[in-house]
Structures are given as structure tokens and as C-alpha cells.
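Quick question, first post here. What does this chain look like in 3D?
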Amino acid sequence: MNNINLYNTLERKLMVFNPIDSSNVRMYACGPTVYDYIHIGNARPLVVFDVLVRILRTLYPKVTYVRNITDIDDKINNRALEKSISISDLTKETIKNFHIDCKSLGNLKPDVEPKATDHIDEIIDMIKKLISSGFAYISSGHVLFSVVKYKKYGVLSGRSLDDMISGSRVEVAGYKQNPGDFVLWKPSLESLPGWDSPWGRGRPGWHIECSAMSKKYLGNQFDIHAGGLDLIFPHHENEIAQSCCANNSDVMANFWLHNGYVTSDGEKMSKSLGNFTTINKLLLDFDGESIRYALLQGHYRAPLSFSGKTLTEAKKSLSRLYRSVDGFEINGDPDQEIMEYLYQDLNTPKALARAHYLAEQANKGSKECGQQLKNSSKVLGILSLSTNIWFKYGKDVEDNNQNLDVNISDGEINKLILKRKKAKDNRDFHEADLIREKLLELNIILEDKPGITTWRKS
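> Answer (accepted):
Ran it through. C-alpha cells below.
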């Protein structure tokens, strides 16, 4: 079997991946906090680790991929208050939009997508164990983890506790024994979500959610835990501490993978800085596959500079690849050289360079190279459409002579809905009506509701 080499943040080096159980590789990735649309920086780990899952599934008979949803958080509470809607309505709408964005980006669905609010019992049980074993304490209605009790605290980030606290936004509160202690459970006002617990009505802290959910679906110790670079501290550091202490184990996950930031003008892209672009907005002007391609152009551990020009160039690159696979269907194994690059710590830039070499050879008449490229498309999550459909939807929707394919995919429908929304926002109701009529010709019925458009087949 081919070896996959991955950079393990825990060991700070490239290592050969050896699963705990080769019959079932187990992987956990941190998902969104559902209070707003995801931005391009949020999308990077979704795409990168989707490719990793695809690679693993070429080598192992089963890969259990878990990606959580945080649906209880102060950010959610505040956003619901700002929008004057219920927390439940906000999270439902945001999760739905998140799934649309994921599908547009060509991501596979995780095997399990647990929500924090569905796992309160597991969270309370883990907190009980931490209290009984002396790693957590109760103070002013809060339950906190005592970082000084876990001697390996800092194992992931490689920094001392004092350095970690001074370099992060750790909440300093009077009820803490140590400034670095973090909340496992906190009180809830009657106006906010809360659950009964041995420590009073309250809700879980952020970090404990992932520890409880990963244990339930993957066990005390599993193969891979993945997420963005910004999660190393405090989130992943705290996960390790509470999981190892609650489960009486030395290891939570064997491999920890972290992707680099997406930057705008050299600065990290984030909602707090206000320099982000949401996937929802980008989909008004670009297709999801171009966004996916752009996110794979840089090595996942390196910073990725992003701009509108990045997507324009990505679409041109994809068009060159689509021309070379016209008429081919997936039939056989991926190109071995592409796979070798991906086995080497997900080197997608070199894999894409190899893809363009195969395209060049295919355009010179090599059917073998065209077939190899098409066979490789599935592991990268690109070239999923026919060449005809790709170029057809590259045209403007207002072209009255456009003959849409009757086998239109969900992603293509969602793209047209987004274009229609943009037309309506620009008060171009003629174009919006044309899009609705074209979809009706394909037996797709649109239903406009407050803040969202849904569709169904007639």
C-alpha cells in the first residue's frame, strides 16, 4: 500500500500516516459556528480536508469523517438579538446556507455531522468525569478546567502556559483559579438557551463540545484531527487536555493537521477584521468549482493570497482542463503521479501542475492522458461536469438561446438561483424572470420565502 506523509502539528514534522485500524480510518474536523455565512477563509479547511478524505478512501475500505456544527455560542446569541429573530431560526437558516455553500464547493458530505445541542448529555457526562478526577472545579456557577493540573498542557502549541495566555485573548475573570483556566460549563439567563445540569441551568463552553462529540463517534483515540491554524490555541490545546484527562488516556488524536490562513493584501482574512468575502457573495459571480480550484492552488499549510483576480484565473485554468477531457468518463484509477504528489502532505499545487501537463498532452492527441486526467478528477473534486455543461453555464443566463440540459444538477440550480437573486437585488426583474422561466422549462419550481428561495421538481 502507498504511504501517505502528513505534517503532524503535534510532532512538528512530516510523518508516515499509519491508521490505528486500517479497516476504518477515523477523522474529525472542526466545523462552523453557525451565526453567519462562511467566508473564503472558512472554506479553505472544508476543501483541503475534503481532498484528504478522498485520498484516504482510495487506500482504505472505510473512512469515518466527522465534522461538527457549533449551534450554541455567544456569537449566535448576539446575532439573533441583532436580527430580532429566534436563535433556532438563525441556526436553521445558517446551517442550510452552509450546506448550500459546501455543495457548491464540491465537498463530500461528512459521514456524521453532529450538532452541539444534540449532545448535551455527553458533554455533562464528560464534565462530571473531569470534576471527579480533580481536573475541573466549580466556581460561581461555572465549571472550569484547571490547566495546571494537566502537566502536558501546551503539548500541541509547543509554548508555555504564560506565553499562550499573553499571546491570546484569554478571558480573565474573578471566578478563575488561574487566568488560563477555561470554561466547561457556564450559567445561562432565562432569555438564552440553557439546560439543567448538576451545576445549575447553563450551557457548555466551546471546547468541550468537540471532545464529547469526537469521543462518541470516533472513540477515546482516533487517527486525525483537522482544522485551521487559528484553532491550535486555545481550542485544540484545550480539547487535548480535557479529552485525555476525562478519558484517562495519553493521546486524543495521533495526527493534528492545520491549514494556513487565507490573506487579503497580506493580512489574515477574518470576520473580526472585516476584510472577508463570503462564499455566498462569491457565488453570485463565480461558480463553486472555480473557488475550489483557487483554494487548492496553494499548499494547504502555506498562507494563500486571495483576490477576485485569483478566481478569474482559476476559472480560465479549469476551462483549459475541461477542454482536454471532453467526451471522457471516469474509468479506472487516477494518474499515479498526481496521487504521489497528494500522498506527500497533500501537495495540491504540484498535482494541479501535473493535471495541466496531462491536459496539454491530451490536446495533442493523447487519449491516455485525457483518460488519466478524467480519472484523477474525482480525488481532487474537480471536472465533475461534462465539458458541454461547463462551458454552457459559463455564459450569461440572459442569453435567450441558451438550451439548458435536462439533467441539471443541484449545484447548477443553486448557481442560477444565486444569479437570479443578484438580478433582483439590482432590480433587473427581466433577467430574474428569464431565469425562473428557464428553470420551469426543466420542471424546477422556485418558491420565494422571506430571506431565501427554495426549489423543488414538479
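The first strand starts at residue 5 and ends at 8.
The domain at 30-263 is CATH 3.40.50.620 (Rossmann fold).
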